[in-house]
Amino acid sequence: MKIRNGFVSNSSSSSFVVLLPDNFLEKVDYDKITENYDEFPLDDFKDLLKNFVNNRGMYNEEIYEYENDLDLDDDYEFVDLLLEQIEPYILTSIESGPDQGQYVVISRKEVEKILNKGKELLNN
């Protein structure tokens, strides 16, 4: 298994561990997202982001299904747009094989728990 600390563009074969700020939804630059589209389904994308935060992550397949259920005329690439928004908050990515892409949102408390466990293991 490969573990990378940087952003990986091939999201279908990578899983990401993401630490989002509490005000993530307020920090999203919605104007930037919609600037290249005449009729971007912004409310639908906002719903996707809310689900992403509330469910503490998603699989790529869930995002594709969400997009397909909208039956949009244009292909807005919600997966790529989501990745652009969360990229600054990605802690690590893990190569997971084809079509296994997943985004896992963790809390600061969970990060502290992981770090403390790591310190314990190193000290033993």
Give the gist of this structure.
This protein is of the alpha+beta class and 124 residues long. It has helices at 24-27, 30-34, 42-54, 60-70, 78-86, 108-123, and strands at 3-4, 14-19, 57-59, 90-95, 102-106. Strands 1-4-2-5-3 form a five-stranded mixed sheet.
Question: How would you characterize the overall build of this protein?
Answer:
With 124 residues, this protein is an alpha+beta fold. It has one domain (3-123). It has helices at residues 24-27, 30-34, 42-54, 60-70, 78-86, 108-123; strands spanning 3-4, 14-19, 57-59, 90-95, 102-106. The chain has a 5-stranded mixed β-sheet with strand order 1-4-2-5-3. Mean pLDDT is 81; it is low at 1-11.
Helix coverage percent: 40-55%
Strand content: 15-25%
Helix and strand pattern: EEHHHEHHEEH
Order of strands across the main sheet: 1-4-2-5-3
In total, the number of strands is 5
Summarize model confidence as the mean pLDDT.
Answer: 81
User: Rg, please?
Assistant: 16 Å
Give the total of domains.
Answer: 1
Q: Could you name the ranges where pLDDT drops below 50 across 5 or more consecutive residues? A: 1-11
| Number of helical regions | 6
Structural class: alpha+beta
Q: What does the overall shape look like?
A: elongated
For the report, how would you describe the main beta sheet?
5 strands, mixed
Give the distance, in angstroms, between the N- and C-terminal Cα atoms: 25 Å
